[in-house]
Amino acid sequence: MKGKKRDMQRSKAYAAERLCLGITSQPMMRFMDLSIWLRGIGKKYNVDVFVKDGRGRRKPSCGWYPTSRGIEAIIKIPRFARNKIIAMHELAHAIARDDPIHGRKWANTFLMLVKKHVGYHEWAVLRSCMKGCRVKWITHNAPKSQVLRKEEGGLVWE
Ligand SMILES: [Zn+2]
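A: This is the predicted complex of the input protein with zinc ion.
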């Protein structure tokens, strides 16, 4: 993530997500359950996800950190944010690696993850909330699973 372009869709994306959460009323998950669930889904897309409890944070986050095992996505998710939709929002950052971070590729990945791993109803609600809040997403060349390839000196996303 270069962060050069302004993250124009950020507030629209948050507004759409809040609306969707209000309509679908997602149950809160226990940290361990959420952590295991999220790691399992990350594996399907070749993303190594570590989940931290995000204690003291006002917002959940997703970042990339080099570890002895390579580069890992670390998702920090405070107690109030422990539901499947917010978890998919953060995982979409790790999979899409979009720039700006709430760009069209991220939005498309978020929708895809919610449809596949949360439910059709949640997907349909999120999609219409995104439309209503004017969040844009790519509708072609949808990112499927990405391949993390080991190369000299690092890891490369394909
Ligand atoms: Zn985000």
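The radius of gyration is 15 Å. The CA atoms of residues 112 and 123 lie 8 Å apart.
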